[in-house]
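<context>
A single protein, sequence plus fold
<sample>
Here is the protein in question:
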Amino acid sequence: MKTVDEAIGWLHNRLRLGIKPGLERMEWLMNYFENPEKRLRAVHIGGTNGKGSTVTMMREALQASGYRVGTFTSPYIERFQERISTNGTPISDEALFTLVQEVKEASEQLEQTTLGAPSEFECITAIAFRYFTNVDPVDIVLFEVGLGGRLDSTNVVAPIVTGITNVGFDHMAFLGNTIKEIAFEKAGIMKSGVPVMTTETKPEVVTLFAEHAKSVGTDCEQIGTEFSATYQESTEIGERFFYQDQSWSFAVETSLKGRHQVSNGALAIRLLHECAKRGFDALTPEAIQIGLKRSRWPGRFEIIRHHPTIIFDGAHNEEGVAALTNTMATRLAGTRVTVLFSALVDKPFVNMTSQLQEHSDRLVWTTFPFPRSATKETVKNVSKSVEWAENAVQWIEDWYAEADADEVLVVTGSLYFISYCRQALI
C-alpha cells in the first residue's frame, strides 16, 4: 500500500469475507494493541433505526459543553473517513493510512490462527479504538453498533452508559426472524453496572429488555416511564419538544426533521444526563439546547436543492420508511411528490415501496453500483408494473431540469444509495 486509497481498498476487499459475527477476533485484535477499548470513556448506542441521529445530537451537545468527542458510525455518506471522526472532523488520510498498515499486519497474524481473518468491519473498529487512544485522544467516544449488538465488533467496548433506540425487522438473516429474537441480539450490548436507556415501547421487547438487564446486573430505563419527550410542534428547521426525567425538564428544539427525532432526541438527552453524573459536569440543559439545535446529519430528510426541492433520506428498512412517510405527510402535504427508490436485494423492498406509493404521486425504481443492489430483473420478478430509471444520477438531473418549482423529489432507500447520489450531486 502506498496511498490512502489503496489502504481503503484493502479494507473494502475484506468485504469478500462477509459478515462474521462473534467477538473472538476483536478480542484478539484488542489484546494485540494492548487493549485500547479499556482506556476509553465511551457511550454505546444500538437499535434498528435512529442510532446515527442520536449520536449526532449527543456529539453536538458534548461539543457545545467544551468536550472533544470521538464518533464511530456506519455507513458513511460523503466519504469513508467520516466513520471515524473527532468533533465532526474525519480522521486524516495520513492517520488512516498508518493505522490501516498496523491493522493489516495484525490481521495477517490473526489469519494464521484458528480464529481466521478479521472482517472489514472488525478491522475498521480496531482502527477506531487505536485512533482514539493513541493518535487523537478524546474526552469521550460515541460508538454506534454496526449490526445487532451481542456479537457486533463494537461490543468489546466498556461504556459508561448504553442506549438502544428501537427494535425492528432488519438483517434478519443474522439476527432472527421475530422481534423477540432481534431484541435479544440488541440487548446483548447491556453490561453489568452500566445503565441502559431505550426508546423501545413494544411490550414484549420492553419486558425482554428488563429481564435481560436484570440478568446481567443493571437497569433499563424506558421512554415514557423514567424519562419522556412531549412533542410540541414542527418548526421550519426541525422539531420542538419538552423533555423530562427525574431531575431535568426543559423545552428543546432539534434541527433534525421528523416526529421520530423527538424520541431520538429524548434518548440523546437522557444519555447525556447520565454522562453528566459520571464526570461530564459541563453538560447542562443550556448546552444541550444549543447542541440539539446545531445538529445536522446528512441523508436524514436532507434538502440538497430548492425550487424544485430534492430531499435525501436513508430510509433503508420498513421502520425507516414509516418514519419517512410520516414526515412527508407532515411537511409535504399538498405538494406533488416523486420518489426515487433503490434498495439492497435482501431488504423487504415490496413492503417498503408500498408505503412510499401511498404518500407520493409517482414512484420510480433504480439501481446503483453496489454488489447487493437490487437490479431491474430482481424488481421485475416481484412487481411487473415498475417505472425504472436506468441511471439514477442522470435521472435526478433530468427531473430537476423539467419539474415545476413547487415539486419535490425524495431520493430514498439504501444508505449506500444515498451516499452514491450525494457524492455525485453535491
Remarks:
- The chain has two domains: 4-294, 302-425.
- The first strand starts at residue 42 and ends at 46.
- The domain at 302-425 is CATH 3.90.190.20 (Protein-Tyrosine Phosphatase; Chain A).
- The chain has a mean pLDDT of 93.
